[in-house]
Amino acid sequence: MRRPSPNRERLLEFARQLARELHAIEPPEAELSERIDYVVWGRKQAWTCLEDGIITESELRQLLIDHLDYECAHISGRAWPEFDEAARRRFVDELEQLLFGRPAQE
């Protein structure tokens, strides 16, 4: 099933917000941008895998969060599981809206 591809700049803005608000660091711009491309359209081909039914929307969302968190965690020293559940849920909800325009389906 072909879907509209997510907006790179909006995904990068999301990554900047994650870096600033959860990790309390200045976003590593180049690394975050490269990570988004790597996961969604590059080597991981997550968007194509989603369209081909190989992964679910939830798996794509979590893969991207994990990679963005990794880029920030090695600077901040904190990782996704350490953050407040409400804050994590807010970021998950926001990313799902950016990727799919609605909550992710399993």
Please supply descriptive tags for the structure shown above.
106 residues; mainly alpha
Structure description:
With 106 residues, this protein is mainly alpha-helical. The chain is built from 5 helices and no strands. The protein has helices at 8-21, 29-40, 46-51, 57-76, 85-100. Helix 1 runs antiparallel to helix 5 (85-100). The longest helix is centred in the middle third of the chain and has 20 residues, at 57-76. It is globular, with a radius of gyration of 13 Å.
In short:
This protein has 106 residues and is mainly α. The protein contains 5 helices and no strands. The protein starts with 7 loop residues before the first helix and ends in a 6-residue tail after the last helix.
Taking pLDDT < 50 over at least 5 consecutive residues as the criterion, the unreliable ranges are none
Enumerate how many helices there are, as a single number.
Answer: 5
Which structural class is indicated by helix and strand composition? mainly alpha
How many strands in all?
0
Shape: globular
Distance between the termini: 15 Å
Radius of gyration: 13 Å
**Helicity, in percent?**
55-70%
H/E series, N to C? HHHHH
Instruction: Provide the residue-averaged pLDDT.
Output: 96
What percent strand?
under 5%
The profile of the biggest β sheet is: none
Q: Strands, helices and their partners?
A:
Layout: H1 8-21, H2 29-40, H3 46-51, H4 57-76, H5 85-100
